[in-house]
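haha ok so turns out i had the wrong file open the whole time. this is the CORRECT one, sorry everyone. sequence first:
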Amino acid sequence: MTLNRLYPHDTAETALTDDELDAAYNWSQGHRVALNIVTTLNGSLTDSEGTSNGLSNPEDRRILGRIRSSADVIVVGATTARKEQYTSPEHASLAIVTASGDLSGLAVSNWESTILLAPDGVVPSREARGATLITIPRKSDHLSMADGIVSRLHDHGFERILGEGGGKIAQSFGTSAALTDLFLSLSPRTIPSGTPWLNSAQTPGAQKTLDLGHMLRDTESGAIYTRWVAAS
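then structure:
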């Protein structure tokens, strides 16, 4: 597979080198809050099986590795971590958001390096013995879930925070006042049902203006990969 750059400096006839791809997905400078999602053309984050596997391809996973390499911590909901069989990242901490404390069925291999994000009073199930529990604010009309998560993770020394899923995480991080980078991949298909990335429900958040950093195209699958950066 070959990735071509469509923006900036259209080089559609020339494949990106590994060094160019590393530079395109480097977000390791200072305090950053990023969201990485892959979505269908009609806004679904999942395929007909309820996971993102059917939307992904080898180039997408190659890019995912580069995005994760800049992160200090990766934030994912417990349901998504279970469905997608998340394992412990090699170079970052994994932070699992749970409202119930049920962490059964997860593929986490190293609970000692794992963070649990839960409202006060939630007791994690025994599978997560050894994990670090960080309390986050309960749902509020004024504070988005992502803003509460980011604030608490910053308090614990994490500078580069990456949100990945599922739907609630994506929707909340996508409208967070703290968002600095959005990595948005478009799978060239539509799916009649799935987890929506765009939600019409009223949720706390902030209106954001982002500038297009780059647009890449996978010449084999037709997938489009973009990076958007918060306007200064």
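The chain has five helices and ten strands.
again sry for the mixup
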